[in-house]
What we know:
The structure holds two protein chains of two kinds. In chain A, 63% of the residues lie in helices and 0% in strands. By secondary structure, chain A is mainly alpha-helical. Chain A folds into two domains: 1-71, no CATH class; 73-114. In chain A, helix 1 (16-38) runs antiparallel to helix 2. The longest helix of chain A has 24 residues, at 74-97. Chain A is flat and about 70 Å long. The termini of chain A are far apart. The model of chain A is unreliable at 1-7 and 123-131 (pLDDT under 50). Chain B is mainly α. Chain B has one domain: Cytochrome c oxidase, subunit III, four-helix bundle (Four Helix Bundle (Hemerythrin (Met), subunit A)). Chain B is built from seven helices and no strands. The radius of gyration of chain B is 21 Å and the shape is globular. The mean pLDDT of chain B is 90. Chains A and B meet through helix 1, helix 2 and helix 3 of A and helix 2, helix 4 and helix 7 of B.
Amino acid sequence: MSNTPDAARDPHRPNVKLYMAVFGALLCLTLLTVAVSKLHLPRPQAIAVGLLIAAVKASLVAAIFMHLWGEDGRIPRILAAVVFFAAMMIFPILDGAFLVPSATSRVAVADQHPDEGGAAAPAAEKPAEVK
Amino acid sequence: MNATTAAVPQTSSGISNAKLGVWLFLASEIMLFSTLFTTYIVLRLSATSWPWGWTALNVPLGTLNTAILITSSVTIVMAYARAYDRDVAGFRKWMALTLALSACFLVVKAFEYGHEFSLGIGPSTSVFYAVYFTMTGLHGLHIVGGIIVNSGLLYMSYRKDCWEDPLFLGRVEGAGLYWHFVDIVWIFLFPALYLL
Lengths: 131, 196
């Protein structure tokens, strides 16, 4: 293909200048990530900034190096389906991430769900005396 | 359209089988690493304490490995560009450079592991280190897989008939897609484990 007149019009023709520009951007973003970590931001902000920079870097690699930018629409659609199903897997699991040991303690359950036994539960579970 | 072509339904997707196959394989890889990252999030959020990555791991070496892997992503896309133009010598040079950088990544990682083991740190030390060794270990295995595939392509490039094979460029592109995916995984692993 490369030696044919059509090659010049090929949308997937490698663009070396663009690759080098992205390479420079990726190295700068890597240094930025490390520099931001030196600021010792509070953890939520540090995680947000770190993951945002990582997402930008990953997008650059996927769009330019993996040629997703300008790719046939079917491959991005396949990827969208994958991300959807990955999210379906992740969200239910994340539910457990917000459970802390104190939230599932006997006292906490009794306090939040008094109608379901709660503090009275141990007494209810006490076996009946044998006469 | 004549009677013969009208009778044969068009089944081509317009995407080469090799590229479609690699993307479907990468789809399964996305699911695999999504699971691991979710596990990391769950364990981290439910832990009573979690160390900052920079207090537990060697950030300069992690940064060096990030730079090495990003550079190898450029060299493999350059190898693809040279193969696209049928520049045999250029392809071999860039692919050999990719392999050298891949080996450097593993050497740096082995040095890190070695230092941690010498301090008595292992996967059983804490949940943080269990996650660290599992995720970086699996990523390292993916690097080894990429090295095997890329070495095979470099070896094939020395056979004259491979450059006459129209499938060869697709193979190089597929290997590149896989390698960029491995790079993307590290792009998320590095801040998640070393910096946050």
